Amino acid sequence: MRPIQPRIRLFLSAKRQFSCSHHRREIRSVSELPDRIIPRYQESLHNDLLCLQWPSPPRNVFFIKKENVPAVTDAVIEFSKHVHSSYPSTAMIFENKVASEIHDRLPFPVYTSAADRDTATLELQPKVDLTVTLGGDGTILHAASLFSATNSVPPVLSFSMGTLGFLGEWKYHEYKRAFREVYMSGSGPGDRCAQLTPEKMDESSGAGSVSPEWSSLRGKFMGEARPARVLLRNRLKVGVFDSAGHRINASSDGNLAPKIGGDIHAMNEVIIHRGQDPHLAVVEIFICGRLLTEAVADGIIISTPTGSTAYSLSSGGSIIHPLVPSLLLTPICPRSLSFRPLVVPSSMNITLRISDKNRGRGLELSVDGVRRNHGVDIGTEIHVRGEQLRCRDGVFTSGIPSIVRGTHSTGATGDDGWVGGLNGLLKFNYPFGEA
Amino acid sequence: MRPIQPRIRLFLSAKRQFSCSHHRREIRSVSELPDRIIPRYQESLHNDLLCLQWPSPPRNVFFIKKENVPAVTDAVIEFSKHVHSSYPSTAMIFENKVASEIHDRLPFPVYTSAADRDTATLELQPKVDLTVTLGGDGTILHAASLFSATNSVPPVLSFSMGTLGFLGEWKYHEYKRAFREVYMSGSGPGDRCAQLTPEKMDESSGAGSVSPEWSSLRGKFMGEARPARVLLRNRLKVGVFDSAGHRINASSDGNLAPKIGGDIHAMNEVIIHRGQDPHLAVVEIFICGRLLTEAVADGIIISTPTGSTAYSLSSGGSIIHPLVPSLLLTPICPRSLSFRPLVVPSSMNITLRISDKNRGRGLELSVDGVRRNHGVDIGTEIHVRGEQLRCRDGVFTSGIPSIVRGTHSTGATGDDGWVGGLNGLLKFNYPFGEA
Amino acid sequence: MRPIQPRIRLFLSAKRQFSCSHHRREIRSVSELPDRIIPRYQESLHNDLLCLQWPSPPRNVFFIKKENVPAVTDAVIEFSKHVHSSYPSTAMIFENKVASEIHDRLPFPVYTSAADRDTATLELQPKVDLTVTLGGDGTILHAASLFSATNSVPPVLSFSMGTLGFLGEWKYHEYKRAFREVYMSGSGPGDRCAQLTPEKMDESSGAGSVSPEWSSLRGKFMGEARPARVLLRNRLKVGVFDSAGHRINASSDGNLAPKIGGDIHAMNEVIIHRGQDPHLAVVEIFICGRLLTEAVADGIIISTPTGSTAYSLSSGGSIIHPLVPSLLLTPICPRSLSFRPLVVPSSMNITLRISDKNRGRGLELSVDGVRRNHGVDIGTEIHVRGEQLRCRDGVFTSGIPSIVRGTHSTGATGDDGWVGGLNGLLKFNYPFGEA
Amino acid sequence: MRPIQPRIRLFLSAKRQFSCSHHRREIRSVSELPDRIIPRYQESLHNDLLCLQWPSPPRNVFFIKKENVPAVTDAVIEFSKHVHSSYPSTAMIFENKVASEIHDRLPFPVYTSAADRDTATLELQPKVDLTVTLGGDGTILHAASLFSATNSVPPVLSFSMGTLGFLGEWKYHEYKRAFREVYMSGSGPGDRCAQLTPEKMDESSGAGSVSPEWSSLRGKFMGEARPARVLLRNRLKVGVFDSAGHRINASSDGNLAPKIGGDIHAMNEVIIHRGQDPHLAVVEIFICGRLLTEAVADGIIISTPTGSTAYSLSSGGSIIHPLVPSLLLTPICPRSLSFRPLVVPSSMNITLRISDKNRGRGLELSVDGVRRNHGVDIGTEIHVRGEQLRCRDGVFTSGIPSIVRGTHSTGATGDDGWVGGLNGLLKFNYPFGEA
Ligand SMILES: NC(=O)C1=CN([C@@H]2O[C@H](COP(=O)(O)OP(=O)(O)OC[C@H]3O[C@@H](n4cnc5c(N)ncnc54)[C@H](O)[C@@H]3O)[C@@H](O)[C@H]2O)C=CC1
Ligand SMILES: NC(=O)C1=CN([C@@H]2O[C@H](COP(=O)(O)OP(=O)(O)OC[C@H]3O[C@@H](n4cnc5c(N)ncnc54)[C@H](O)[C@@H]3O)[C@@H](O)[C@H]2O)C=CC1
Ligand SMILES: NC(=O)C1=CN([C@@H]2O[C@H](COP(=O)(O)OP(=O)(O)OC[C@H]3O[C@@H](n4cnc5c(N)ncnc54)[C@H](O)[C@@H]3O)[C@@H](O)[C@H]2O)C=CC1
Ligand SMILES: NC(=O)C1=CN([C@@H]2O[C@H](COP(=O)(O)OP(=O)(O)OC[C@H]3O[C@@H](n4cnc5c(N)ncnc54)[C@H](O)[C@@H]3O)[C@@H](O)[C@H]2O)C=CC1
Predict the structure, then answer these.
(1) Do B428 and C337 touch (CB under 8 A)?
(2) What is each CA distance from D180 to A82, D86, D306, D402, in whole angstroms?
(3) I need a labelling partner for A95 at 20 to 30 A (CA). Which of A232, B258, C372, D208 fits?
């Protein structure tokens, strides 16, 4: 058994204080919390966004923040205090390191998981109802990585701090309204979610018996709640196999795949790159088992549509709307005049094989910007396919449910913010001439 | 009423000869034929291709050929003679001009429609069971254009003559095998189409009662028939509206929209272009009603995935597999450093509006390479959205069902030929170095 | 002989009024003016710009303005009035149409050329000392086209009106300073032009004998004059030959080449394009007589470095600094994955040949945005090579000498404004993130 | 002082054997050889290639070969034997490691330099008359790197072994003819080099007194010698400075700059890259001291026109003919939609500064594919400018004089092989359709 780490010990001692009369400044284990509540995502008539519908109010809120930025730390404290006081039955979860950093600035107990990443992943998955991120796109990618081994990711509410990112939907100052919208979503008949299926909402969500948390809040906030709208971002499923065809699992120090085995999920992309080796990489690419080509290049990107505005964009890929069920294959600096980026259905398998022509060296594998280069040697195969949106009776159980920020003024509830992001953030088709 | 054109007259006189004893060299009206047989397209387990299933054998075969190439004319004669003799209950349909050109070289009556394009369209749609094209991609596009006003396009079997095209699947010398495969498809229990839904095939296709045409052929050809595999190519739906919001219909001389009104369908793309005007075009682009950008460019392409290897490719667009349900927006020579091609879900509407900044002139509109520039003035709006694949009980009623050529040797029945086309035809990622 | 056109007649009658006592509102012939003064362009030590050096003050100023914009007309009137009153020995030349439009708003006689373009060209070349343009890039291109048949183009001082262009250096409100800088350039020993060759300036410019116009102005303006800095923009030389190898000269109605015969010069580019024909153009490209490739495309651009930020940029070409002695070959929407833009030395000949594969139709030829499509049929050859900078004893006799706007504050006299234009106008590498 | 390495020792002992009667299998020091003969490069009338003119026959031939390929080793032995027997007054020089490897397979003494790279560089520069490379482009780059600290590089005759490279002009089987052409070049009046300057060749090359080596060979080879044609490839000059502005010289273990100090020259390019760090690099780019932009990217390439077909091509740069005097600035995967490759005159300085925004880490610097990352930390500046072609009286003293392979059959002596390379090697504009 692995030695207990300092932070875990702190947490254990906190646990021992249970009988104490004052709960504040405590760090508790996330395992003490009730299991997560699985929300439904209802299709709506007029657009491709889904309506978030909690069967009962969310209870376990997981805050993830950007590291080493004091202003973000202050924000997460302010935010969690607000949630604690306005929604008293919610519990606040933080990453282990963050819990240690901030728990004594909070007047209520905080929950955390093990410091060890794999264990944390196992502990968090069954508990988290809602993830809140404060930071940039990197923070959201990090949050996604903590759920990279599960199909059922809790909804993510993300706030950009400082520079606005492309994935982060909300501005921090909107946090009260945003949280309320998510918390109340699906709480009652007033929801304006025009449903595709005319089935009775009441029944499906426990007719009539609106939870007391919701009813009490109803009174407080005037007006009806608008349901939170969700963009289901599909991920990649990535499996790594050695030349003998065996799945490469993580050793204690590696992080190629979670201990649990199986595929890892990527929100943006998986990349094979020459890394610091100044020589070209050689990668064989197969689509549905058929050899497409042998790429001689700096690297190869397999990206989700979400990732089409990340590395793939820099490498010349097209911009793909996140709801196009597809995989992008974009080369990085290919040594060819005729390697055009490809887009295939997300149902097709793409395999990257590290060619024997790489003169003995391995290549670098990274997922969502994090290097995972344990064992990516010659002959190694990376198997990639798109996560399939599985929808049974309106319950989608895949993808990353990202809460979309509405443009209230216009009432254009179908607006998924994508066009706005292209113009505002990417300076898409920025016109010539003096500003 | 419009005057009867020479060719129509020929046809009318042919009609009068009905009582004659010898039927050969006749030209008859397609309207005399029985109504078309609607096939089913069955999903299969292992791939994204569909299995063609005729409830009973096809009867009305429509041959379309490239113009002005004697070798192609010879081929269409040879081909139709073969069909006539091997599948005696089939009728051969040709375009009006072609019927006049070749009927006296054929020992059986041929069928045709009116010379007038709009009338032809109306006459052909309810009759054609199967379209066979001989020529290049342009011939297929032309065939598609004849069904551009209907949702339910008959399956297309296309042979490349001379230079191999990207859309044309079959080589001419395979015509006997290809036709037989299509004709027999779905004829019996031997079909190797692993079905997704375990429902009894027999029932759905009229249990037990295999049609006599099929049974007699069964004997002749040894071995079981492999079902024809179909790639359902989604089209664009294009509507043109004047600045007052009225749909622009075709006048007698124009061809903006079929007389029947409603949208036209495009297999490759719809394009707005500056044409011969040496000045830049200005086009406003809206996605789902929201202004994306004002494009200053040579033109704008809205393309299907099928069209991604056509004009869009030349303009820098990515290559999209035909089964990704999407629309491509690719600029032609945009006056901006930051106009990257976009790909959106096929369910989203894209509107192109001819901006007032075009200094009074109109722009050129073309659909699948054919100019349709009647009335594309300032303020005109082109509304485009993707055809939605509609599937009810295994009957898809949209898209262009294109018969895919199999690679028999490998038995890889899931191979849709796309990867092969990239390598063989587009010279995708063609390696450096002396051949 | 061609009939005298209305405007010419006006001009002739103006001529008859010579004996009249009041010269104002007159339109005189440019042929009455003294011959132009050829300036020298001196290389300087620290940068690639040249110093303009008049042997004696310029006298004949040619104003060219954008058409149909009242504000620009007002500006040209204000500007020419200023020049008339501050530099009394200068004469104002306008294009024929403009002269008619504005002469009665000016209190002094104006000069003009024939309305007929070819004749105008012949008349203007020997007379114009300095061209001043007011408008956009199109106005500068038009000015250049009037000198497209000569090697020795007078310096161009260009002001942008309204939207800032990439070629137009100066803002209109700077007109007084700009004109003075150009007028005085090379007038005396105070010039800060660090010369490469240490030869005595006094001798070369007529030692000691500073012209009276200059001396009188010296007193007026305090401080020493800074010499005007010149960017010599190299042009293309374009010859059009029929399939028999004969140079195609302009008929009376065409404008392929000036009547004078010989090559025409292009400032931006020469383009072969499919025009309104929806089918691909086929063009054979030769470099130094050797077949490079057969291009199947919308068109082909041969551009100067100056034109690299015009159409070539939209077609994917790199941005080339105007002083790189080169020609760009950029395809427009080529039907190939592997047609990368090329840059060759300006000394190399490029020939475009309209291929026989164009199915009988001709293609469109345009030079600097103006169509010149008389006779560009199958077999026609377009011969292009770069204008060679000829420099003998510091006298450059080629290129378009464009007066560059200095950044006075920084004193960076070597700054040619190119980097500023990339950032300010083209939004080069515009950063992501909310503005 | 550094310990004598094994190979040097071998060489020293070889030296001691000088008095021995048999010279074979010896390894001697290159310093014993006579000083190199500086050839002239004469401009010719009809093209941009230069004519190589030896004042007297070359004596010291430096063979460089690809490592670890037995066939290449065999070739170099065969080749040097041929030179030894046919041109008896020549001496064969090899790299230290190669000399040890092959000297005992050669029946004559070989010359070499110190094993230490910096010392080797110092020893070779004053001695080598002609460099012969056998291998690929990498071998030529390596050869160039050995002369990267000098302006005056001896001519390079390069043979491709196996895969044909873009820089390597000759096929190995042509080695006899090729060597003879180079050896005899400028040997007499029969040279067909049409000279630009009509000065007497005889005088300049020592009138009348044709060297005995040449006269004896004249007899042997029938026919007149054609002069070798030279493509002068311009290089980059690269200086690396720390944030305090001090030039960073090489420590004993680094290789940033030769011990001799001063700039290093690059044949292809200099690159700043994020290397294995998965985060974007931030680099400030200055042109002529003016801030162009802050690049956020994988890296930045500053390339010669020669290097335009190397990494820059893969990163989207245009293809530039090697004789265009320019520098290319090509970004690698820039995080911007509007970073287009730039081309500036080779006389302009480009400075890359490692921005403070790189979060503390350094970046990777590489020159011609070799990493030289000692000290490329935040604040480090890379100063780059193009080597200026210096020509005084027909003696060019800069660039890499590369012997061009002629196409004898055509007699097109002006053909520099560039167009052929685009088509044959890069598959430029490779046409669609089945091969
Ligand atoms: N040359 C390039 O463009 C490179 C891009 N990356 C991208 O960075 C990602 C990792 O992000 P960080 O850890 O923050 O690394 P980072 O600190 O290097 O920043 C990456 C940048 O990409 C942006 N970004 C991330 N995902 C995005 C998305 N889906 N759409 C639009 N922009 C997005 C971020 O806002 C940030 O500006 C990787 O998944 C990869 O896509 C990584 C290396 C090089
Ligand atoms: N610069 C360009 O690339 C241009 C392309 N076109 C394309 O041509 C099409 C019309 O075809 P034609 O009447 O035969 O005109 P065409 O005779 O000008 O030939 C167009 C070429 O495109 C090919 N093509 C057509 N559809 C394709 C597809 N989906 N994928 C790959 N290649 C395809 C054809 O094989 C042919 O080589 C238009 O729909 C448009 O996409 C039209 C004009 C310019
Ligand atoms: N798709 C495109 O980018 C097209 C570009 N053009 C360009 O337009 C030029 C003719 O100009 P106009 O008569 O004003 O036509 P125009 O009214 O269509 O405007 C052309 C645009 O190009 C700009 N421009 C012209 N020369 C430039 C240069 N050297 N660098 C940067 N920008 C430049 C002008 O400022 C204007 O914005 C042609 O020489 C051609 O280069 C012409 C047609 C299409
Ligand atoms: N993604 C890419 O395209 C990369 C390219 N390189 C290039 O490789 C060069 C170093 O060459 P090696 O040591 O052989 O590395 P290498 O073994 O990685 O091969 C580089 C390839 O580039 C080719 N090459 C080199 N110089 C060329 C030129 N001027 N024009 C056309 N092709 C050229 C070579 O033939 C070889 O195929 C670097 O100078 C850099 O330009 C290096 C890393 C990545």
Answers:
(1) yes
(2) 87, 9, 26, 15
(3) A232
